[in-house]
Amino acid sequence: MSKQFAVIGNPIEQSRSPELHHAFAQKMGLDLNYSKRLAPLDGFLANIQEFFSQGGIGLNVTVPFKEQAFAACAVLTERAKIAKAVNTLWMVDGQLHGDNTDGQGLVDAIRALDWSLDQTDVLIIGAGGATRGVIYPLVQAGVKKIVIANRTLARAEQLVADLKTAVPQATLQAIGLDALEGQFDLVINATSASLSGDALVLPETLQFQHAYEMAYGKPSTFLDQAKARGVPTSEGYGMLVGQAIESFSIWNGIKPNLKDFL
User: Fold this and answer.
1) Where is the SDH C-terminal domain (predicted)?
2) CA triple 208-210-212, angle to 5 deg
3) pTM of the model
4) Nearest to 166 by CA among 184, 129, 141, 140
5) Is 9 labelled as part of a ligand binding site?
6) Residue 182's closest CA among 213, 159, 214, 149?
């Protein structure tokens, strides 16, 4: 019988994880089955317990359960501890293990674009969970300074206070959205502005070499402005594939090449 994997969330229909993991398995010559699990909002823990009790190997976790998954784990990776959210679960000797592969997915996607991260200055717009999850992997990849810009400055300042001891080799700074200026190697949009259709205005005082939009498949005023300046851009599909590859490699001990699936 093939190994069983799944993604759990609510809603779940939109997830592209099954097609990705089946594509990885086909490429690597593995036999597995990867399905979608819709969990009731108050039934996440019971659902994952059922999955593992029936012999399931690995679970991906999507909204709104990543924080609950974090709280449920007996063993956490360093990047999951820092992210305070888990998107990848597996069992070892009856203990639930958790990791967060989103940040590494972003790093691998940026590297697949042949954009350097070493010794770079990065601006991240937004101070939510998506930003928290990527700071540690970005610094591990060589980023030397990260500025977090957020509409509510206090939220960005709290994030910097929470994370600065985790990344002592880098400089973290918080600013308000009204203070966007300076020069950066890369700007990352981690807000839902492209999803909600809100205009995110990048002032002329802000200069950057590359622009990455974490969302994908939606119109992005952020990317439109970057393209108008002639700056290389990318939307977040590569990050989606990258985090899936990272989960796949944790569970199966074999890592597909990201560029094969872009």
Assistant:
1) 236-259
2) 120
3) 0.94
4) 140
5) no
6) 149
